[in-house]
Design brief:
alpha/beta; Rossmann fold; six-stranded mixed beta sheet; three-stranded antiparallel beta sheet; 9 strands; globular; nucleotide-binding; PRTase_dom; Phosphoribosyltransferase domain-containing protein 1; metal-binding; transmembrane
Length: 228
Amino acid sequence: IQISDNWPGYSLDLFTYPQHYYGDLEYVLIPHGIIVDRTERLAKDIMQDIGDNDIVVLCVLKGGYKFCADLVEHIKNLSRNSERFISMKVDFVRLKSYHNDQSMQDMQIMGADDLSKLTGKSLSRFPLFSFPLFLLILFFMFCKDIVGTGRTMKVLLNNIEKYKPKMIKVASLLVKRTSRPDGYRPDYYGFEIPDLFVVGYALDYNEHFRDLNHICVINDHGKAKYRV
């Protein structure tokens, strides 16, 4: 689903959201209900591609945890209601690439010391992955859970691929549209959005707004209020 650059979004007055964020947001970009429906469709697409493979899901924290939990639950429900059982294992890695609303030059990968256990297994990037193994790496927005320039994804993939997994797929709820030609495109994604700094649905600004169910655009007041 593509959200155009001139999309005005939804008025905040149409939705409920935590009162402590009043005055900190411009508008709702993607309501929670639409996120849920789109994630369910992604789960169906992934199930069709899995075949008889089990899945190892590598969830990119922190922003990816809600997307990961919802996507995994949808896949489990589809598996329970089908003639084939899909075994899934979920693991986690954490990336840090932003200071306030600015992308940093150097990216930190935390929790990557155990990636050697993926050797010889198939990986699907979902952040978020049997024999043969389908490794799914799941991001909320690639990167930092958003696919932006793709630099973050490329660094993570280089670290994973040196362990020679059999198969890797990447899923991201959001893909940020940029003018750079080197942008990374995940195998599965929910929404392509304009080059905006968004928060909510576990995506944060300096650890704030994770408790916001909708995906919203933060305003200048909110950035200043929570700047570190």
